[in-house]
Design goal:
The complex is a heterodimer of chains A (520) and B (1029). Chain A is an alpha+beta fold and 520 residues long. Chain A has helices at 10-16, 44-48, 57-63, 74-89, 115-128, 141-150, 160-165, 176-185, 190-195, 198-205, 207-217, 246-266, 299-312, 346-360; strands spanning 2-6, 27-30, 39-42, 68-71, 95-99, 102-106, 134-138, 154-156, 226-227, 233-243, 270-280, 285-296, 319-329, 367-370, 379-382, 413-427, 430-436, 456-457, 466-481, 489-498, 503-509, 512-519. Classes of the chains: A alpha+beta (520), B alpha/beta (1029).
Chain lengths: 520, 1029
Amino acid sequence: MFVVIYIPEFFLHAVLRAEAGLEKRPVVLIDAAEKKPLVLQLTVAARAVGITEGMTPTQALARSTLLQIKPRCAAQEKAATDTLLQCAYSFSPSIESTADGVCTLDLAGLPNLDHEALASEMVQRLATLHLPAQVGIGRNPWLALLAARAARPCCVIKNSTQFLNALPVEAIGPSPETLAILHKWGIHTVGQFVALGKEPLSTRLGPEALALHERAVASSTRPLKLVRPPQIFEETIAFEHEIETIEPLLFILRRFLEQLLVRLEMMYWVAQELRLRFRFESGDPYEKTFRIPAPTSNVETLFRMLHTHLETLRTEHPIVALELSATPGRAINHQFGLFESVLRDPNHFHETLARLTALVGAERIGTPVNEESYKPDAFRIEPVSLEGSAGFQPAVSPTSSRLPLQLPRGPALLRFRPPTPARVQLAQGRPISVDSDLPSPWGCGTESSAHRTGSTGAGGEGQTGNVHRVHDARGPWRNSGQWWDKDQWRREEWDVQASDGRLYRLCHRPDGWFVEGVYD
Amino acid sequence: MSYVELHSRSAFSFLRGASAPEQLAEAASSSGMPAMALCDRDGVYGAPRFFAAAKENSIRAIIGSELTMEDSSVLPVLVETRTGYQNLCRLLTRAHLRAPKGESKVLWDELPEFASGLVALTGDDEGPLARALQRDAHSEAEARLAQLKNIFGAGNLFVELQRHRVRGEDHIINCLLALAATHRLPLLATNGPLYAKPYGREVLDVFTCIRNHTHLDTAGKLLARNSERHLKNVQMMQQLFADLPGAIENTCILADRLRFSLENLGYEFPKYPLPAGESPDSFLRKQTFLGARDRYGATLNDKVRAQLNHELAIIEKLGFAGYFLITWDLVQFCRENNIMIQGRGSAANSAVCYCLGITAVDPVGGELLFERFLSEGRKSWPDIDIDLPSGDRRERVIQEVYRRYGKHGAAMTANVITYRGRSAAREIGKALNFPPDVLDRFSHLFANGDFPHTMDLQLQMQQAGIPKAHPRSLPFAKLYQAIYGLPRHLGQHSGGMIICQGQLDSIMPLENASMPGRVVAQWDKDDCDELGIIKLDLLGLGMMSVMQDAIELTRQRGHPVDLAKIPKDDPATYELMQNADTIGVFQIESRAQMATLPRMKPKCFYDVVIEVAIIRPGPIQGDMVHPYLARRAGKQKVNYFDERLRPVLARTLGVPLFQEQMLRIAMVMANFSGDEAEELRRALSFHRSQERMRKVEVKLREGMQRNNVAPDVIDKLVQSISSFALYGFPESHAISFAIIAYGSAYMKVHYAPEFYASLLNNQPMGFYSPATIVKDAKRHGVVIRPVCVQRSDWDCTIEADDSVRLGFRVVQGLREPNAQTLLAQRRERPFTSMHDFKFRVPLHKDELRTLAQIGALNTLADHRRDALWQVEKQEDWESMFAARTEPTPLVPMNDAERLSADYGGMQLTTGPHPMALLRPQLKHIWRATDLPKARHGERVRIAGNVICRQRPGTAKGFVFISLEDETGVSNAIVTPQLFEKQRLLITQEDFLVIEGQVQNTDNVVVVKTKKVEPLPHGQLTGSDSHDFH
């Protein structure tokens, strides 16, 4: 005998299983990659309000304003497939991954079983993994599959002819083209199909008709293409709405953790390592690996680990996707190597880092990267990445279409950081004197502050500093940018030769004049 | 010492410049420049507008262009003489025609051939020298300079210097100075302005993002470094080049040399080949009076004769005879080739055009204003727009024009696509990195069709999800206003053609159009008009095709109809209009027209003219519809804004409805001369110039004040005139359209089979889908027979019993060549069996299946399912028993299955309407035909297939829904509040049940919707809805 476990609306349930209670609400699944996405699969609640497959999302929304539209997710479908196979393997070593959401088991060699009870147990176990299954049992894989499709939720075939004739013709799997022809003919059941006769059908529909006829009478069997369940334990979700607080995240993480541990247990494993991945709204990824010194399948222990980490985590952007995976291991103690220098408790390190982030702000922890901008010293902070070597990036202009202006080599500029505020006197728009508290050693050798009257600058009134006459000035060089938001900036640079013989770079910004540096 | 800017780019450099030519000219004038040069990238796109604006601002426009060279460097050239201009146009034409659309590459080797009459500059930072110097390739720069000197000559090459306050630029300038000294070349200072005022930098940054498909947050160093590339005044430039005064001085010296003006284009319109001894004027006179005999009879009355003489005298004085002859010649070509033709627009005001057969309106009888078409003061060519049947017949005429005048002698005029509401908002929004859904929402808030957009920008932004406090809200609003109206790209005008006696590519550069085999000019029709270039508008009209086909059918069926001779007082035709039974009728079939017809109750041809003109955004915006209808119904007293306007507005009951009336109002009330009225008309029709409109308005107000017109009347009149700015019809145009509207209504009444067959043969067109047209035909007693392989042709045809047989063209997926093979086989002998049919007509399986499912093979099978069973059979052509028919095991389709099969294969059905099948399940639902019997205010439920949803911008958010059932069409109106509440239900469902109160006024029955719900219709399908919301 053969058993088929069939998950109806598999792609939809692969997505729904990540979130509690969704299966009871009107939800439809679309393939967002399609140019014009249509409803592919839907929940019972969605069908109840008049939504059907093939509608456009807006047509579906017209039927129910409460409708949720979910896109297909390859990662979640893979996780669901892995779960299904791992569950099936816990019943029989001879399993086949027949199709998406369909797994066939060969019961040969297993002790005589109560088929109804077996089917119920399978349904129940998958239900704990949030996969609503239908189980069919028949004398060949094909019949078992048909039984599974017709099952509510279990079906064991006793009279195959009677069973087959009542089935809709779609059950024997005609190609869409053939199905369209059959519908045009008015053929809707397998019984009607068989009644047309094998030969008339084959002269019209070709070899496919023969195969369909064979399926319609379920006369032959086939060997299974046996597989072993993958050793991958992973659960993932892409959020419809960005997650900004910890509560919903913890809720889903707990659900994932429970599912992963059930799956591990079915395969007689425990968790040796957990890997948590986020994707932020900005598109940036985040990944955190939790090594578990004592591998375990205890939900509370593992959940606490995740919880502690998340409590200290501050992110710049909301989270749009989450993935949790477990590396399987045996529940045995293992000894660290004698010369092992890695952190024994990475969780501890990350906790420390997380606390630091909480203290100084996420924007101050990370790696500085040069910005592609004319604004001097423009940079941004990128998140800490312990994997790989994310260091300083070279200041290249990959987006610039024009050749960079090749400046002739001149003296090097020693920059004052921060720039020193200055009071600059102008005549005909050009600097004629500079008054500034320059840091040592440039601050000595000053003149009188006779030229201060009428000057403009950043310093307060009556400031006393080092006044220099300007012997020569070049400029202004003007730069401005980011005019479209609050970070807009504007600056005007001058190179001046001061009475102390030095060349200074002056900068005029909306907040005043500054000495930016001195040429070496 | 003065300064002239000799290297500027406008927004006609398409995303490489940020100001309109007018803005540049105005800025140059206010900067005190005596002249200025515009050098747009790879063309002279903006030259006509720059030329006109320069004239207006009393500066001299110098023409030039930036040439993209084969190595991607950019070489600016300036035009010195007409030869130079012609060379530039030919060079650009050559560079454009060999490159893909929108690109141009000039080869260094071909430059010498076209250098005469041009002066070259060495360019800005994209110029050949600067590019080499930026790479420190001094020898390459030197070699290029030597080459340029060789090509243009030492006196015609200037080393260009620009300073934009960028650190390091003096290094390049020093290198250029050294090169200039070495080669003894003069220096020339320019600022290379890309925008008129410093703010333009922000627009340019946005354009840079659009050009590079990026947004401001990631564009980085693609963006401008500062705002220095605006048009600087003389003092600023003198200060900037204080160390090089010669470079400033040279700008004036060179500008003085560049004396070419667009006034001297040297354009000549083609000469009509005259018979010996004839002048254009004498020949035109002869042809006009010959035609007059046909139009008015052998003896002309004095009025006609006087009008013709008056018109011919003006035509002669203006030297336009050749133009009329050429148009007449084209009309002759159409007549000889059996292509229906009708002039529209202001040409219909001319008795000469009427006599030449160009128009079908008798302007003498209709007392139309000839001056609207042509006046002595008119400088530009008159407009003769010609309507042709759309499709192949129009294309034949266009190809004939190309054949007559050659590829370089004729071109389609350009259509400069400008940034309008949606496009401006979308692209600015993208550049500002707004999410796509916000931009979608913003776009959806625009009015549709040609209705004006009335929503305030700030409100629209807020509704789209950009609150006032959003940090990018202000830049968005500022940019939107700055970019609105700037050119976006060059398209092809739908029908405007320009022709030339000589080489058109010497007059303006030509480019490839998207359509193979066509070339397009760089100027749009207004620009051509301004510069005196002859233009013919050959416009395609679907209804002309219908009329021509229908008339042809009447001829074939032995009762030919001459459209010109149909009675204009046919009671049955007016009854059809009064009953708003106008599905398929030209111009008066829309929902709004149908709602007006029973109130308007047209009784004579002029009523149709008014009906055509009145349901337009102009009159609707100007609140003129209601007063007119009320006065017509005697519910409101006829009065005039001012008694002086009585003669002007008498026939429209004191309500101005036509453009001519607007002009007359200006003439009567503000003492506008014919020329000034013409200027007013042009300002009204110029979409691009608010400024121009404002200036005319000031003049209008001043004129009326001088004439002691009351201030409130002035306001009302100005408001009336402004609302016509974009959307008013000239009376003559309305008459031309009314002829077709009346003709199509007449055909519908008296030659229904011919009318419906032709209408179906010219789909898609009009407001309604073929399914609705078929149902309408059935309601008018025309039997529509299904497609049949034994009877159908490619087109829908009329059978002996006056029924219309659907043609193969309605069958989805049936290719025309295959259908023609079928017809050829059938002509040899009829098909005797399915086996015979399949053997002789090698159709694709899908085509066979579709034919079987729609019942087209029923003559070869017992029923549709039998046909479907037989078409699937693999035939053994060699077996002698193969033709033997076996009984089908399949049962025939029921009504619902046939209906689905019909919609699946033809998107229409000749069988029962889906609502007829649903009717038994529907309780207490009123049928469309019963609705007029409902009492005003009664609460009713109606249901049907949604065939039309409209949400016109003028309706303040109200939505109109048309539901079709088996008896006709019922209409419902939905309030904005209900629409917003149930927007998706209303816009997405194919079948609806609507409950509401009946509004029955003046025989216009509408249900005011209170409740909407979907009508479950199972597998039944209906026709597609034509939506405008």
